[in-house]
Amino acid sequence: MGTSKHRPAEWRPDAGFSLIEALIAAAILLIIALGLLPLFTRSINDNVSGNDASQATNYSRTEVEELLQMPFNNKRIVVPDGSMVGQTKDFWTAGDLTKIGDTDEGWWADAAGHGNALWNRTTEVRQYSISDLDDGNLDHPQPGGTQPTFIQLKEVTVIIENPKKNVFGNGQGITLKVVKPF
Asked: Do 105 and 94 contact (CB within 8 A), yes or no?
């Protein structure tokens, strides 16, 4: 058997990509990557918004569940005398993130001195007579101080708002409304 005088194609010095071909391939990859970049920034924004919505929902549900478990005439769900609505406001703070072991995380009636307020929660209570349901709507609240025998329903509304509005967070909030029967 004789040997061939020709080398295989992969051994030829002119095999492979030229500099121009490599630059064109890099440019195509760059264009594709730039087209995908907005998708990544959008996904980051959606994840932050989803996290905000989950936190707001959890904080709202927790407050509603606590209020529903309380006795009907508990001071947290009593409408003050002469008022049509009982309202409380509190703020969720994460504390001072620069301090190790800072215990200021939680709900506070006044956020001053506890770090930045990350969530604002407003709880509203209105009270009704059962006869207000005759038309199917709760639209005639009874003022605080009404004799307890005339109050059979309490409407509890919890509003959670996120005061941060920046590039990633959109200030997502939530409102939950329930009726507590006597």
From this structure: yes
What's the one-letter identity of residue 87?
Answer: Q
What is the residue extent of each domain of the chain?
37-181
Q: State how far the alpha carbon of 65 is from the alpha carbons of 60, 70, 72, 128, 131, in Å.
A: 9, 9, 13, 20, 26
For residue 96, count CB atoms less than 10 angstroms from its CB and return exposed for 0-12, middle for 13-18, buried for 19 or more.
middle
Is the pTM higher than 0.70? The answer reads no
State whether residue 67 is helix, strand or coil.
Answer: helix
Q: How far apart are CA 107 and CA 118, in angstroms?
A: 10
Give the CA dihedral 93, 77, 155, 130, nearest 10 degrees. 170
- Per-residue pLDDT tens digits for 121-153: 899 999 999 988 888 888 889 999 888 888 899
Residues 6+ apart with CB under 8 A from 104: 93, 94, 95, 96, 113, 114, 115
Cβ–Cβ < 8 Å for 125, 79: yes
Distances in whole angstroms, Cα of residue 177 to Cα of each of 36, 90, 109, 123: 41, 17, 21, 10
CA distance 141 to 123: 16
Tokens linked to 85: 């609505």
Tokens of 113: 């001195």
Total length of the chain: 182
pLDDT digits (tens, 9 = 90+) for 75-85: 888 899 989 99
